Structures are given as C-alpha cells and as structure tokens.
C-alpha cells in the first residue's frame, strides 16, 4: 500500500474536516490513499501543534497541514490554500472553475469564509466555552453578542446568495456545481451547535447544510474522523 497523502488534523476541528471531505470527494480513501495524524494543542514534541516535529511541517503551529507524496512530498498548510491546491492539481474544472472568472468567483467565496465567517464563529465558541477556564472570569456578554451578530450577518449574506442561486436553478453557493466554496463553508456551518447559533431565520442556509451533510463524501469523511 502506498500512502498518497498525510493529513495533520484535530478531531473536532472544522478546518481539517474541509480537507478530509475534499479528499473523499476526489476519490481518495482513508487508510488506503491517505492517513490522519491527530494532534492536540500542547507543546508535546511529537503530538502537539506547538511541538518541535509539527512546527517543521507548519511553522505557524496550526492544523490542517497536508503532505502530497505524489508531488515530491509537497507540504502545504492553511485550509484555503490546501483546498485550492487540491482543486488545481486534481480536478480544476469541477471544483474551482472552468475559466478565470469562475475560478476567481469560487476563490472569493472561499476567502470570505476563511476571513469573515470561520474566525467569528470560532470566537463565539471560545468565549462561551473556554474563556472562563482560561481566565477565571465570565466572558463579557457584549463580546459574545458582537461575534454572534457577525456570524448572523454572514448567514444573511449566504442566505441571499443561495436564494439567487436557487432562482437560477442551482443548488450550490456558486456556479451550477459543488465547489471548494461549498466545502469551505460547510466545514464550519455543520458545527454551529457548538457555538449555540441557529439557522432559524436562514432557511435556505439550513436546507443547504442538510444537503451537504447527505453527500457520500461528507459521510465518509465523518466516519474516517471518528475512526481515527
């Protein structure tokens, strides 16, 4: 058996799940084509994201990171960069775009998720569930509201986009097909329960998330994450 990819991950991490999902979508199989190295947030030299070994893989000490052994053992980190790399190398027309305009449309939505959605949802989770353990103090309600409001602002943007797409007969965030824009948003929106957020006012977003969850690649990725 020849392993094609190695993925450094964290089991509950939305960003690593994006990469698992895309590897499965591309037809690569867990433990057949790729393996997962799950890390923790410690400085353990071998098992921690801030450990000596992993910082040679990713100097920023964050997951995910990927090694492509089919491309001279190329190492790439940051979820958006990994998604674009895999799409460009293995199936650009399908998952990125058939021409420059389509590609840049896809990339702008990926960038929007990475910069404008994921960080705010992550802050909601942090202040609700980790702040008190870290500081011994209750999280300021105004801070939580600020990040929650930004999450809902992004949900509203996505809701309008999905309505526009539906009017064109399309079921995805951009174009007429599943792309890395869907994969990028889905990685975080599938886990809003952790942030105690709701899609109550965003029915098209809720429907889209449910459809993404039913994709075979998503289900295989979820199984591989639990198995590891």
TrEMBL record:
<dbReference type="InterPro" id="IPR036282">
    <property type="entry name" value="Glutathione-S-Trfase_C_sf"/>
</dbReference>
<keyword id="KW-0808">Transferase</keyword>
<feature type="domain" description="GST C-terminal">
    <location>
        <begin position="99"/>
        <end position="228"/>
    </location>
</feature>
<dbReference type="Pfam" id="PF02798">
    <property type="entry name" value="GST_N"/>
</dbReference>
<dbReference type="Pfam" id="PF00043">
    <property type="entry name" value="GST_C"/>
</dbReference>
<comment type="similarity">
    <text>Belongs to the GST superfamily.</text>
</comment>
<dbReference type="InterPro" id="IPR010987">
    <property type="entry name" value="Glutathione-S-Trfase_C-like"/>
</dbReference>
<dbReference type="InterPro" id="IPR036249">
    <property type="entry name" value="Thioredoxin-like_sf"/>
</dbReference>
<dbReference type="GO" id="GO:0016740">
    <property type="term" value="F:transferase activity"/>
</dbReference>
<dbReference type="InterPro" id="IPR040079">
    <property type="entry name" value="Glutathione_S-Trfase"/>
</dbReference>
<protein>
    <submittedName>
        <fullName>Glutathione S-transferase</fullName>
    </submittedName>
</protein>
<feature type="domain" description="GST N-terminal">
    <location>
        <begin position="3"/>
        <end position="94"/>
    </location>
</feature>
<dbReference type="InterPro" id="IPR004046">
    <property type="entry name" value="GST_C"/>
</dbReference>
<dbReference type="InterPro" id="IPR004045">
    <property type="entry name" value="Glutathione_S-Trfase_N"/>
</dbReference>
